[in-house]
Amino acid sequence: MNEEDKVSKNTTEKGVFHAPWEKSFEKILTPFEEFVHRQTTSGLLLMGTAILALVLANSALSGVYQHLVHTPVSITIGGWILEKSLHHWVNDGLMALFFFVVGLELKREILVGELAVLRQAALPIVAAVGGMVVPALIYFALNSDGDAARGWGIPMATDIAFAIGALVLLANRVPKALITFLVALAIVDDLGAVMVIALFYTDQLVLEALLIAAAIVGVLVVINLAGIRQPLPYLLLGALLWFALLKSGVHATLAGVITAFTIPARPKYDPVRFSEHVKELMARFDASHEPGKNIMTNDTLRGVVQRLENSVYKVETPLQRLEHSMHMPVAFLVIPIFAFINAGIPMAFADMGETLTHPVTMGVILGLVVGKFIGIAGASWIALKLGFAQLPANTSFSQIAGVSLLAGIGFTMAIFIAELGFAGQTEYLLMAKTGVLVGSFLAGVGGFIWLWRVSER
């Protein structure tokens, strides 16, 4: 079979080529891709891994699970060794990628998103602040003394993946603006959680390492101002910043947020310049095209296509490109791994009544369910009454109240803060994680039912 016959055989429409098995694979992959790209999928995956961890931790395989979680993993270069347990690598290392994406989202929202216009941003900002302060106060009221008081930050956080996943399940009953409101609220909530971790959950500081970290941040700012848009220098410097913060006593995951804020948010070309350049390149492309010849044998055509690819790359902002490329691995790999490593709580069912009535457990549950509801709905009501905020389009205050309850789903960030606050205190950590699971479940179910009842199809 000659080359022309092969081309004809693998072409289903004019100018489109298919590999021998490509169409069959497309039929298989398309439904899967649609499923993966749904906003609910990451929440479902997170829930599945958390349940799997709970089952393993309370089964005959609990020993295997605990051995896996505490398996030592080391990086060795010559005589230099960095060794931590798998649990620490996930919480201190892998979660830096999660915070990197959080930082990218924060920067985008502040520059061009829901937080860019003060009138639009006022309600989610005020609501988020109320949703952080009231849960912390409720927890502290029940645990004001001793080491238990360090858990006050646990019920402050909202889990974006779970909360938005639950709300998207109601997409045909709630206005799109309500989902946008929850996204903006959760973003501000994440910013608050990052600040709480930096200010209140930091160990003893090492000045030399902090100075090195500050110098690295300075270099990141310089390369931003110098117009470097390739992501690799930022990622390499971000890795060095992570190590410096790890040695400084400040939680290393904050390197992700700091690095994200230095990623350039301006493209090389504006849309008008890009359009003119593409038209010029396409004119050269058409002039260089020789019918019947493969692009591999046409050097001029390959050069034009390469320049066209570079132009497309330059009209995108590095911020948006990285956010797009990092979202999938973080949502479908990093967060599920975190859930699997941290959600495996050994349950003593005979003592469950005592566990649920423990002040730490009660503080977390009431903070997530009652505190979030009162804080978000109450702050929103005050802001609306005072007139410096407005309801999202086509929404009612009863729907805002439903979202306030739904925001009590605090899984990922809440467990992360619990690990920081109660490091080395097994009993308190067990109570806190139990409270997070129970409180998140009650808030999720309660918020879902509330919104289902008050929203029309």
Characterize this entry briefly:
With 457 residues, the protein is mainly α.
| Mean pLDDT metric | 84
**Helix content, binned percent:** over 70%
Number of helices: 19
Shape verdict: globular
Instruction: Report the CATH superfamily of the domain at 45-79 and 113-200 and 344-454.
Output: Na+/H+ antiporter like domain
> Which sheet architecture does the biggest sheet show?
2 strands, antiparallel
Write a concise keyword list for the protein shown above.
457 residues, mainly alpha, 4 strands, globular
Tell me what you see in this structure.
Strand 1 and strand 2 (16-17) form a beta hairpin. Helix 7 packs antiparallel against helix 8, helix 9 (207-225) packs antiparallel against helix 10 (231-248) and helix 16 (359-386) runs antiparallel to helix 17 (397-406). The chain has a two-stranded antiparallel ribbon. Strands 3-4 form a two-stranded antiparallel ribbon. Among the domains are: 45-79 and 113-200 and 344-454, Na+/H+ antiporter like domain (Na+/H+ antiporter like fold); 272-315. It has 19 helices and 4 strands. The protein is mainly alpha-helical and 457 residues long.
Please outline the helices and strands.
Layout: H1 3-9, E1 11-13, E2 16-17, H2 22-37, H3 39-57, H4 62-69, E3 72-77, E4 80-85, H5 86-111, H6 118-142, H7 160-168, H8 176-200, H9 207-225, H10 231-248, H11 254-262, H12 271-288, H13 299-315, H14 318-342, H15 352-356, H16 359-386, H17 397-406, H18 411-421, H19 426-454
Antiparallel strand pairs: 1-2, 3-4
Helix pairs in contact: 3-7, 3-14, 5-8, 5-11, 5-14, 6-8, 6-16, 7-8, 9-10, 10-11, 12-13, 16-17, 16-19, 17-19, 18-19
